[in-house]
Amino acid sequence: MIWNEVGQDHFEREKVLLDLEQECLEVYRKKVDAANTSRARLHQELAEAEAEFTHLLLSLDERSLPGRPEKMAGTLKEQLDSITPALREMRLRKEERVNQFRTVQGQIQKISAEIAGQSESEYDDLSSDIMVNENDLSLKKLEEYQTELQRLRNEKNERLMRVEQYIDAVHKLSSILGTDSSMVITKVHPSLNDLCGITKNISNSILAKLNSTVESLDEEKQKRLDKLHHLGKALTNLWNLMDTPYKDRQSFSHVTGLLSLSSAEVSDPGSLTLNIIQQAEAEVRRLDHLKASKMKELFFKKQNELKEICNKSHMEIPLQSETDNLINLINSGEIDHADLLMSMDQQISRAKEEASSRMTIMEKVEKWMLARDEERWLEEYSRDENRYSVSRGAHKNLRRAERARVLVNKIPALVDLLIANTKSWEEERKKTFLYDEVPLLAMLEEYNVLRQEKEEDKQRQREMKKVQSQVAVEQENLFITRPSTSARRTSTRSVNGGFSNAIPLNRRLSLGLQQLGPNSINSGTQGISFIKEGKKARGQKMFARPGLVSHLRDETASVVSTFSGPQSP
In this prediction, what percent of the chain has a pLDDT beyond 70? Predict the structure, then answer.
């Protein structure tokens, strides 16, 4: 209407209408874009809400939330409105669960810090840095933290109980030893003293210090008890030695009363104080001073007892120089009297024990000695040429000789048994068996050697007698003549007269045979065969050659030289 009234050009009309259409399209397009943006935002919010809800379900370990449909329907706004309450509920649960985790973890860190021995300022710094893992807020994880917390609480309670036990032990031991327990406890750590008013340190280092403190107090208790035991025994020994009356002993009855008690049984306060030990030591010194005058008498008494045991068993007696040194130490006071008496008692005990072990051997040694005496008597008796004469007491000697022969025949077996027993004793004891400071085995072996030499000497004498008897028989056969003619009788008389000067031949031969050594038996036999051959030659030439006597003397000299040749000693 306006364009008609105005008379607008058709071309202009079309241009304006086209501009209007373009502007309308632009406004519509903007509205559509805004609507699309709003829809996309709603989709994103819904997706984020669903993702957060799902993440919360997973972190809280819950499968679903009551009241929320499994599948949502309707518009986007309706879906978003339906999930928002559930999401808000899950956020509240998450916050509550995180607070629970933070509380449990805070307590765990606190107790761990107490166990580690950290101070409160260090713990405050750590408590502000508690980090909760929001990706795992499940009840299972929370139960694990609560279990760990309960374990730490139990460990804390156990450590507190141990600390209290250590403190009680320190109080008891300090009361027994007479020391200040509060100073001992404060020295370990000030927090252990109730007067300080701070939390007790229950760390491993404090427990170790408390344990070492209790052990050191126990060691000190044991050391003092051992010292009082030693002093109590010394007092008892000195009282018995000095015959101290019962009234004087009563003042130290608390010391001697500890002799039968162990360290665990001593619990009376003040029973092991240093003052008691010092009093006991002073009393022991006083009694030691009184005892010194009687020590020499006791020492000589025990020394005589030891010598008597050694003499009785033929054992080695302590040297006189050692005895003199001990006496000098007693006079100078450089030796503990109790130790000296204990040492003497130990020596006597060892001597008795060794004498007991030697008893079986010593009995056989005594039998051997007796048999040797009888053997010597029997040898002297055998050399007596008048032993068979009728005299007073001769029959008693004969009976004794018979008994002596029986006893002497048992000597070899007795010596062999003695040697075996002595070797066994020496192997067991790892020492030499001495008899009057001489090795018994050497005595037995020397006796065997001498006995063997005697037997060989007797054998040589018997063989020499046999050879001498054979030579005598040969000589007698050599000078036997037959009575035939007067000329032969004259020759015989001259021969006899000549042999009358050769009578010493037998003696010279016997002397030559006696000089033969133990290895000259064969040479003696050769001499006998030589004499037999000489006899035949002289039987043929005796009456045919002049100077028979001188010739026989030369032959006799050659015979003697044969017996006393290079083989004779």
Answer: 73
Report which residue type is found at 129: D
Task: Please report which confidence band the pLDDT of residue 22 belongs to, taking 50, 70 and 90 as the band edges.
Answer: very high
Q: How far is CA 488 from CA 152, 495, 538, in A?
A: 147, 10, 15
CA distances from 17 to 22, 23, 71, 567 (A): 9, 10, 51, 178
What values do phi and psi take at 244, rounded to 5?
Answer: -70, 135
**How does the average pLDDT of the chain come out, rounded?**
75
| d(C-alpha 496, C-alpha 275), whole Å | 120
- Report pTM: 0.43
The tokens for 358 are 């030697």
All structural domains of the chain with their residue ranges:
2-98, 225-294, 295-386+394-472
Burial class (CB in 10 A: 0-12, 13-18, 19+), 347: middle
Determine the 3-state secondary structure of 531 from DSSP: helix
- What the block records as the tokens of 145 is 């933290």
| Residue type at 36 in one-letter notation | N
pLDDT tens digits, 488-526: 333 333 333 333 333 333 333 333 333 333 333 333 333
How many Å apart are CA 510 and CA 472, to the nearest integer?
Answer: 9
pLDDT, tens digit, for every residue of 454-493? 888 888 888 888 888 888 888 877 776 444 444 433 333 3
β-pairing, 434-435 vs 438-439, is antiparallel
The angle formed by the CA atoms of residues 298, 301 and 302, to the nearest 5 degrees, is 90
Structure tokens that stand for 333 in this block: 């006071």
Distance, CA of 168 to CA of 417 (rounded, Å)? 70
Average pLDDT over residues 77-92: 82
Provide the b/e sequence for 27-59 (b: ≥16 CB within 10 Å): eeeeeeeeeeeeeeeeeebbeebeeebeebbeb
- pLDDT of 416 over the 70 cut: yes
Q: How far is CA 526 from the centre of its chain?
A: 72
Quick one: average pLDDT of 260-267?
85
Longest dimension (CA), the chain: 239
Long-range contacts of 265-270 (CB under 8 A, 24+ apart): 266/176, 266/221, 266/225, 267/172, 267/176, 268/176, 269/175, 269/176, 270/175, 270/176, 270/178
How far apart (Å, rounded) are the C-alpha atoms in residues 219 and 88?
Answer: 68
Helix axis angle, 274-312 to 337-383, nearest 10°? 0
